[in-house]
Design goal:
With 314 residues, the chain is of the alpha/beta class. It is 36% helix and 21% strand. It folds into 2 domains: 166 residues, Rossmann fold (3-Layer(aba) Sandwich), CATH 3.40.50.970; 131 residues, Rossmann fold (3-Layer(aba) Sandwich), CATH 3.40.50.920.
Length: 314
């Protein structure tokens, strides 16, 4: 299994795109190295604007550049952007439908030892509530590259959620990423599991455990990667749920305002009868740990929790 850094994939992809697209600019909030932007800053110094630890000002600068026709990447940790500068994003970027791509890195519990202050668990809720804003959460480094390319060709504001550690690659390199589309990572007939980001790896591990259990070895999971959270691929989700009649939403995010709430609303509004379980952080702040697996177990979104949910929903 190949393991790569989502953050590094972002930085390298952006630098490659900037070679041929002179409209790409970066407005950074003192996080050049963590987001692998050193090479971009070195090669394109006039297109790299360092705003320092001033996230609200950085959002304003990004909005201003976008009004001059630039494609602007506003880069920071998710706990600072969009958490600190949300109002400026709303008024200066979304209200004006400005071409700014907001990179929120180190999101979720995957930041482990950084603790509650830096484990941003509310970013998707904040960003999907904003008109004009599109929201994406890459599965792995491969999909990150494809998402960055796709949003560069779009003129709409976008939020892209990145994580801290290197993670396994599951995205098929032959596939393209299309805004508003999901990918079925595995076909199945019994339970639909949807989610976003690297936590979806757990679904494959649970399938492997089911295959080794004589009682459950015939159970197959349909695993759907909803990396495009807004706009959402409603057709793929509804088709799968109608087939399986059982749905588990798994995400490294608060239950409040997360993907699970979006999908639950979708199912109800379409009068579909199904069993539903939402595995996410339940109204709690993060905390420090040595590994993110420890945090996943603590907050009830680990592999054993997903396995228990699968058996329960059956």
């Amino acid at each position: 299994m190949i393991i790569n850094s989502i953050r590094q994939s972002f930085g390298e992809t952006l630098c490659k795109l900037a070679k041929t697209n002179k409209n790409i600019y970066v407005v950074n909030a003192d996080l050049k190295s963590p987001l692998f932007l050193n090479n971009f800053a070195k090669k394109f110094p006039h297109r790299f604007i360092e705003c320092g630890v001033a996230e609200t000002n950085a959002a304003g600068v990004a909005a201003g550049l976008a009004k001059t026709g630039k494609t602007v990447f506003l880069t920071s940790f998710a706990c600072f952007s969009p958490a600190i500068n949300w109002n400026t994003i709303k008024q200066s970027i979304c209200y004006n439908n400005s071409n700014v791509k907001i990179i929120g890195s180190h999101a979720g519990l995957l930041s482990t030892d950084l603790g509650a202050t830096h484990q941003m668990l509310e970013d998707i809720s904040l960003m999907r509530s904003l008109p004009n804003m599109e929201v994406f959460s890459p599965l792995d480094a491969l999909e990150t590259t494809k998402i960055i390319k796709a949003v560069t060709f779009s003129k709409k504001p976008a939020y892209i959620r990145l994580v801290r550690p290197s993670t396994p690659n599951f995205f098929d390199p032959k596939l393209d990423f299309t805004i508003g589309k999901s990918h079925r990572l595995q076909s199945g007939k019994d339970i639909t599991i949807i989610g976003h980001g690297p936590i979806l790896e757990e679904a494959f591990q649970v399938q492997a455990k089911l295959n080794l259990d004589s009682k459950y070895k015939k159970i197959s999971l349909e695993i759907i990667n909803c990396s495009s959270i807004k706009p959402l691929d409603t057709i793929t989700i509804l088709k799968s749920v109608k087939k399986t009649g059982r749905l588990i939403c798994l995400e490294d995010h608060q239950q409040n305002g997360g993907l699970g709430e979006v999908v639950a609303s979708l199912i109800l509004s379409n009068n579909i009868s199904c069993k539903f379980i939402h595995l996410a952080v339940d109204n709690k702040f993060g905390r420090s740990a040595k590994t993110y697996q420890e945090l996943y177990d603590y907050y009830g979104i680990g592999i054993n929790d997903l396995l228990s949910a699968v058996k329960k929903i059956l």
